[in-house]
Amino acid sequence: MIILVASLILFLVGLYAIITKRNMIKVAVGFSLMEYSVNFLFAIVGFRPGALPPILQVVEVGKVYSDPLPQALVLTAIVIGLGVTAFMLSLILRLYNRIGSFDLEEIKRLKG
Amino acid sequence: MLELIVLLIFMIAAGIVAVEIRDLLASVIALGAVGFAVAIGFIMLAAPDLAIVQIVIEVLSVVFFVAVILKTTHVDSAAGRPYKPADIFTFVVFGVFALAFVYFGIRLLAGLAPMSRELGQVASHYLTQGLAETGAVNRVTSVVLDYRALDTLGEATVLFTAVMGVLAVLRLEGRRK
């Protein structure tokens, strides 16, 4: 239970960065933190105490294995997260070259 | 479970450092620390495939961040500026939302708390029948490449689209110069 709540708090740290920071790199960092916390939460949900990795020839009776379904889901999510981060960073780089600053307040003040 | 709690405390601390520190390069390095802690956590949670992928992706993402920062600036000029009343309103709204989020999160996740629930019907079918039906010793592989191969195709499409987007955005910059 503490573990689940701790990953929720990590999610909130990322959300805090996205909402309150005025630096675009910090916002991208916040997105990455949220993504990590959600991936970690899924891996925790698929885990059971003392579980073995789901890599095996025969399922032995009496042994517990972790759930392969959330793991496959997170595998997809990690890779898509990299794509999102790369695209976000290229947009940030482009905005910086146009404006000369990472500051969101300055970008908000611009017209046209 | 104790080591997982310690790891999560480290992750939260490194996350707060990444969000609050003024030097952007240091912020990105702290983000990398969080990512590698996630990889260690995946190993603890019996998910070695995820740990491998997480390490590769984390190295790539830190390289992206550092490349952007080295091309621009690593000084967070927005940090340390005094807050306006509108910002304080934002903080208050965020605080209220955070409390509500944690409260409802605890209520929702209470059913999963001991992490000792039985495997679902689908998951236990994948676990017991995976080798016979797909021939893959690694059940995660059998899910990704056989049972849900269309999802993986969608993932590849998303990644391809992201690469095309990055190329389109960065090439525009090159042409302008």
Automatic annotation (TrEMBL), chain A:
The keyword Metal-binding does not apply. It holds the Pfam family Oxidored_q2. GO terms for cellular component: plasma membrane. This is Cation:proton antiporter. The chain crosses the membrane at residues 72-96. It is a multi-pass membrane protein. The keyword Transmembrane helix applies. It is found in: Cell membrane. Keywords: Cell membrane, Membrane, Transmembrane, Transmembrane helix. Belongs to the CPA3 antiporters (TC 2.A.63) subunit C family. It comes from the Bacteria.
UniProtKB/TrEMBL annotation, chain B:
It is a multi-pass membrane protein. Residues 9-72 form the MrpA C-terminal/MbhD domain. The keyword Membrane applies. InterPro entries: CPA3_Na-H_Antiporter_A, MrpA_C/MbhD, MrpA_C/MbhE, Nuo/plastoQ_OxRdtase_6_NuoJ. It comes from the Bacteria. Pfam families: MbhD (PF13244), MbhE (PF20501). This is Uncharacterized protein. It comes from candidate division TA06 bacterium B3_TA06.
